[in-house]
């Protein structure tokens, strides 16, 4: 197999793997991977404002708000207006959200981060450099993307099956 074909196969494997886990997370938890990542971040920080949550996840506040709207409808998160500063909206997991998180699968993103951080600095640099080159080759370097391993729009509604 030519190197170009092998590279395309590897890219396709990554895309398929991400898509398959996306569907498995949705099937097993009832939430999308971005929703699960929001919940994971809230579990780690207990309570955050919407702005702090967006900053922590490197997402826009509008995207986080859209995700929170869906999680709130499912009674997985609670939004409360600040007592001292009414302009602030604090977000936390509900008991139902905490229970869901206890049974949630480990995401590919968590596995990737753990394995990537176990690599030597020079190996990390090589991977980043290669991925930058691939993004450039696909004319994708200008696309806005959050540091979440997921397919599609992050603020999308979960599709009904």
Task: Describe this structure as you would to a colleague.
The protein has 7 helices and 3 strands. The chain is mainly alpha-helical and 161 residues long. Helix 3 (50-57) packs across helix 4 (61-73). It is elongated, with a radius of gyration of 18 Å. The mean pLDDT is 87.
Question: Which SSEs are present, and which pair or pack?
Answer:
Blueprint: H1 3-29, H2 33-45, E1 47-49, H3 50-57, H4 61-73, E2 77-81, E3 89-93, H5 95-102, H6 108-118, H7 121-137
Antiparallel strand pairs: 1-3, 2-3
Estimate the helix proportion, in percent. Answer: 55-70%
The CATH class name of the largest domain reads Mainly Alpha
CATH structural fold name of the largest domain: Arc Repressor Mutant, subunit A
| Strands, total number | 3
The CATH superfamily of the largest domain is identified as Winged helix-like DNA-binding domain superfamily/Winged helix DNA-binding domain
What class would the helix/strand composition place it in? mainly alpha
Rg, alpha carbons: 18 Å
pLDDT averaged residue by residue: 87
- Domain count, please report it: 2
| Second-tier CATH architecture of the largest domain | Orthogonal Bundle
Lateral arrangement of strands in the main beta sheet: 1-3-2
Helix/strand order = HHEHHEEHHH
Termini gap: 38 Å
Low-pLDDT segments: none
Give the biggest sheet. Answer: 3 strands, antiparallel
> What fraction of residues sit in β-strands?
5-15%
Shape: elongated
């Amino acid at each position: 197999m030519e190197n170009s074909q092998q590279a395309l196969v590897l890219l396709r494997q990554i895309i398929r793997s991400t898509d398959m886990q996306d569907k498995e997370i949705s099937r097993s938890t009832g939430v999308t991977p971005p929703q699960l990542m929001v919940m994971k971040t809230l579990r780690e920080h207990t309570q955050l404002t919407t702005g702090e949550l967006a900053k922590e996840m490197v997402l826009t506040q509008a995207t986080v708000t859209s995700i929170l709207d869906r999680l709130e409808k499912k009674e997985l998160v609670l939004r409360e207006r600040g007592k001292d500063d009414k302009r602030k909206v604090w977000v936390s997991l509900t008991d139902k959200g905490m229970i869901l998180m206890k049974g949630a699968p480990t995401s590919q993103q968590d596995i990737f981060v753990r394995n990537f951080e176990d690599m030597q600095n020079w190996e990390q640099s090589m991977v980043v450099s290669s991925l930058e080159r691939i993004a450039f080759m696909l004319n994708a370097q200008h696309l806005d993307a959050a540091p979440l391993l997921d397919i599609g729009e992050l603020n999308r509604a979960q599709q009904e099956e």
